[in-house]
């Protein structure tokens, strides 16, 4: 949620139970404005909150030029003081899905991960390299937080089709001409929404799925083909023609888009645990 539209965005997702106290919201907005100026960000966003047993992690990010590649993340406990989130490491990426305990709220807390019973989750070659390498199997919570945010972003962070475009230089920027989905019929179709991440599917795959393919707009992956099927819950609120998207694999992620308008945003409020039971629920 962009800091300039934070109050309005929270109203649109209030149907999902997301709420921030007014006094805390003012602290949050002011601190994000300061964070944006200090780091010379073009825009700053409130990503959401990961709930811990002792303290909660409030997450924010900003970018300078490329709105996907240049994202820099911060976390805070009081919505005033922001700490830089470390980069994702290869070891932490393997160990994080194996951590069964909840977040504690202490970034220096270390969890000992037992890999023996969970090797089937990951690529065997990657896990073998981790096991054979002279590294610790201890996972720092700060590193786990970075990986969890990265996983949630890659699987649930979405945008309306056409809201971002790729320049000739390769930079991904916001589309100044974006005015929202053209009509209600388009807005209730999953193919109208794209993953806000670097594309993972081949260019030809996206080309074959969209009849009016546009190279500058359709370079991202659509959520329509996500696995498992029916992992997205789409609702249309008739009161103000607002689309609400929620991902069943990561409970707590909520996306909204007001049809026929350029306004959209998303927020995550949850414990940072993935729901592996989705195939048995749909």
From TrEMBL:
The keyword Nucleotide-binding does not apply. Its main location: other. It comes from the Eukaryota. It is found in: Cell projection, Kinocilium; Cytoplasm, Cytoskeleton, Flagellum axoneme. Keywords: Cell projection, Cilium, Cilium biogenesis/degradation, Cytoplasm, Cytoskeleton, Flagellum. The keyword Cytoplasm applies. GO terms for cellular component: axoneme; kinocilium. One of its GO terms (biological process) is motile cilium assembly. InterPro entries: RSP9. Belongs to the flagellar radial spoke RSP9 family. This is Radial spoke head protein 9 homolog.
